[in-house]
Amino acid sequence: MWTRMSSVVLGMGAILLGPALGTSEAHGGDGPRPDAVFYELTEEAVFRPDGFRDATSALEGKARPGSPLCPHGLQAYAKRFFPAAVAVKTTPRCRVVAIGRSVIDMKFGSGEISGTFWVVVNSVATNLTDAAELVVMTGSFTGHVQVRDLPTGRIIEILPGSVFKQEMALEGFPLPLPPNASFSFTGTFRLPFTVHHVAVYLTDRGELVPVLPEERALGEPTVRLEVNFE
Q1: Backbone dihedral region of 26: left (phi > 0), alpha (psi from -120 to 50 degrees) or beta?
Q2: 110-123 and 88-89: which strand pairing?
Q3: Which tens digits make up the pLDDT trace of 145-165?
Q4: Using CB atoms within 10 A as the burial measure, which of 62, 73, 97, 187 is most buried?
């Protein structure tokens, strides 16, 4: 029922918005697809007396095989590493969960992000029906951000020089680089907003694309994060 109603709403939005409403992924088809895409599941934010917005978020997403968040062979190794009773399930892309913090100057739109990520797999031992949760690799990230379109803040860019670190993987798994090696990345946070009662994202080309049903958490539109490794 929800999926059917969502399709009706999006269809009506397309009529109302006309050619401004695209149907591709939120990055709008500008260049290669992101190496990883995350969605913000929860967030707690406060505005500090010094003019900064301080927020903590829980995110979940998928990473491209061969990227630093999904080393080749990691899931297959996990399937061999755990006993048969655990029965790890492999997937085309790695599932990644993260807890991140952002501190942004509300006047200038500049700030910092940091946090921890976990690459997880699904298994019989952890319930195949719900989301993946068995940890096979962990790490951290830090970076600098800049709000692109003050004052609306619909797009926030992760600036060059931001880094992911692979800090631990299953014992015996040969990480491509030594532990704590850094991988530079950039990225884009796309904040959803409403146009004619339809939740949309803004693409890099200034087009509007609808927030799809799978881009929601408990029915609410989510912030979308696209990550590209340099």
Answers
A1: alpha
A2: antiparallel
A3: 999 988 888 999 999 999 999
A4: 187
Distance CA 84, CA 91 (A): 18
Centre a 10 Å sphere on the Cβ of residue 13 and count the other Cβ atoms it contains.
20
d(CA 225, CA 186): 10
Q: List pLDDT tens digits, range 116-139.
A: 999 999 999 999 999 999 999 999
Closest C-alpha to 109, from 155, 140, 76:
155
Q: How many CB atoms lie within 10 A of CB 50?
A: 8
The single-letter code of the amino acid at 4 is R
End-to-end CA distance of the chain: 42
**How far are the Cα atoms of 67, 71, 73, 95 from residue 90, in angstroms, in the given order?**
16, 13, 10, 10
| Listed residue (57, 13, 1) closest to 211, CA to CA | 13
Please give the sequence-ordered ranges of beta strands (E in DSSP) within the chain, or none if there are none.
Answer: 36-47, 52-63, 88-89, 94-105, 110-123, 134-147, 155-169, 182-190, 193-195, 198-202, 208-210, 216-217, 220-221, 224-229
pLDDT category, 6, cuts 50, 70, 90?
A: very low
Tokens describing residue 125? 């031992």
Q: In terms of C-beta density within 10 A (0-12 exposed, 13-18 middle, 19 or more buried), how is residue 203 classed?
A: buried
pTM check: above 0.70: yes
Kindly write down the DSSP assignment for every residue of 83-124, as one continuous string.
Answer: -TTT-EE--SSEEEEEEEEEEEETTT-EEEEEEEEEEEEEEG
CB 140 within 8 A of CB 116: yes
